[in-house]
Amino acid sequence: MSKSPRALVWFNRLLLAAATFIMTMIAMRTLRDPVGATRSVGIVLSSPTAITVARVGFGGFPLGLAVALLGSLISKERLLGGLYLLLAVMGAATIARIQGIVLDGPTPYNLGLLRSEILLSVLSVVGIVLGRGQRHGDRNGADHRASLQPSTAAGGPR
Question: What is the Cα–Cα distance from 22 to 148, expressed in whole angstroms?
Fold first, then answer.
């Protein structure tokens, strides 16, 4: 990856945009039709309470995450925070998915999602590491430039 600050910002924005899109699609599918969305993976919702719980848990929470990621995506100052949020959610999902695979057995569906969750987690870490390095570089560069400026404080050069 290029060390260009512009390339890094766009890498992080593209990652957050992809995650925002994925979470929005998950949310919309479940908010529109929780019974159909869950039936495809063998979940049967047999009461209005179950349908609402699925709508909130599988629709509302991913939509809330998508909104938060979108807010991070549009602000250069919030990109790093968005990556930390994405890493926290994808890391937790990855751990839960691994637990499910260990306890319940592997399925093609779960193994496919595990790969995607690991990929988003790894890319988030890459973005965070590079972003933190860039941020520290910006601070050091600003400090260095400030030290080259003539002092105007009392006793300084006039």
Answer: 47
Distance of CA 25 to the CA centre of its chain: 15
| C-beta atoms surrounding 131 within 10 Å | 19
Q: How many CA atoms within 13 Å lie on the side-chain side of 66?
A: 16
SS3 category, 27: helix
CA 3 to chain CA centroid, Å, is: 21
Residue tagged 């807010």 (tokens): 71
Q: Give the type of residue at 128.
A: I
Q: Which two tokens stand for residue 81?
A: 């925070």
Residue 123 has pLDDT above 50, yes or no: yes
Q: Is the Cβ–Cβ distance between 117 and 93 less than 8 Å?
A: yes
pLDDT tens for each residue of 33-91: 999 999 999 999 999 999 999 999 999 999 999 999 999 999 889 999 999 999 999 99
Structure tokens at 42: 């063998």
